[in-house]
Design a protein that fits this description.
Elements: E1 18-20, E2 27-29, E3 38-40, E4 47-50, H1 55-75, E5 79-83, E6 86-90, H2 92-101, H3 105-133, H4 142-152, H5 158-172, E7 177-180, H6 182-200, H7 203-214
Antiparallel strand pairs: 1-2, 3-4, 5-6, 5-7
Helix pairs in contact: 1-3, 1-6, 2-3, 3-4, 4-7
The chain binds zinc ion.
């Protein structure tokens, strides 16, 4: 193991990397940048990409924590209600099921999509990429998985569900004694860790690392 500091991620030397600014569409050559810095658009100053400290480790650690919280959210009750001695526990999957039964099919589908399906798809795809990349490897289908991750990253709306629940809880509190369960705190933690996992590593870096892992025989720059 060499002692010199890693300023940037490995990249194939003879491949051109270009990207347009998301804000003003100016085309840029993507040069490697030092760890802890960001590359900005030369026209408008918009941040093009970042080289974060320990990005792979950070994304993987947040991802694993988020996945554990996701499992706790599915298992444990979100809230416990006590209305005149009539105690009921509601978990996130339980809430989806009862919404469906009581005619709120659309809301049930929205909750299932935004709180269960999308976060899980994002976490699974990020870990599928990041865990092998920690060892300089990538698993089959990494490119389609990366595209799924990129397409869905802006569709994480756990926060919306969470805020909606807090608002409904405030109404419920008048009717019954409501206690927040492990499921509630898991969603709160999941929100934070999911954001940490997604912003932990830059897309440019992930694509470069996948590219170099697919050609293990070639010399990295
Ligand atoms: Zn720009």
């Amino acid at each position: 193991m060499s002692q010199h500091h890693h300023f940037t991620w490995p990249r194939l030397p003879d491949v051109r990397h270009q990207a347009a600014c998301h804000f003003c569409d100016t085309l840029h050559e993507l040069d490697l940048i030092e760890e802890g810095t960001a590359a900005h658009c030369k026209e408008c100053g918009f941040a093009l990409y970042r080289n974060r400290h320990s990005s792979l480790q950070r994304a993987a650690a947040f991802g694993i924590t988020a996945l554990s919280l996701f499992a706790l959210m599915l298992i444990f009750p979100f809230i416990t209600m006590d209305a005149q001695g009539n105690v009921s526990e509601v978990s996130v999957p339980g809430a989806v099921a009862s919404l469906w039964r009581e005619g709120g099919e659309l809301i049930a589908l929205a909750v299932a999509l935004f709180v269960i399906v999308l976060p899980f798809t994002l976490l699974a795809s990020l870990l599928y990429l990041c865990l092998p990349l920690l060892f300089g490897r990538c698993l089959p289908g990494s490119r389609p998985v990366m595209r799924i991750f990129q397409a869905f990253q802006f569709w994480v709306m756990v926060e919306v569900f969470f805020l909606g629940t807090i608002v409904s809880l405030l109404k419920l509190v008048k009717l019954a004694d409501v206690e927040l369960g492990i499921g509630f705190w898991s969603v709160a933690g999941l929100m934070i860790c999911l954001a940490g996992a997604i912003s932990g590593i830059d897309r440019t870096e992930l694509w470069d690392r996948i590219e170099i892992a697919e050609y293990p025989g070639r010399e990295a720059s």
